[in-house]
Amino acid sequence: MRFSILIPLFLSVTPFTAADWWLQAFTGENCSGQEVGSWVSPERHDQCENFDSLVPIKSVRGDASGVGGTLQVFNRACSDPFEMYSLRNECSNAGSWGEWKSFRIEY
């Protein structure tokens, strides 16, 4: 009986459902500053998307494991894997690359 009560309490604490991918973009390092973009979707999405922000995106936080993928961010186009980072519910700074410019989910 106790076990069945604990499961709904645990699930209600999670910010996104298990079937979502999500991403947040920020103007400051360490996911600080102004949030300039936010995406949440329960559907698979593997197209390359450019950040449509007028300000440089210095850091991002996100995760696509809910849809069985890996969220990747790039400082150029998605076809340039040299400057790329994979996110799993963590913050990533653009660092010496200057800014993040695009993202995609790889399955």
UniProtKB/TrEMBL annotation:
Highest taxon, organism lineage: Eukaryota
Keyword entries, A-Z: Signal
Signal peptide, first to last residue: 1-19
Record protein name field: Uncharacterized protein
Organism: Aspergillus udagawae
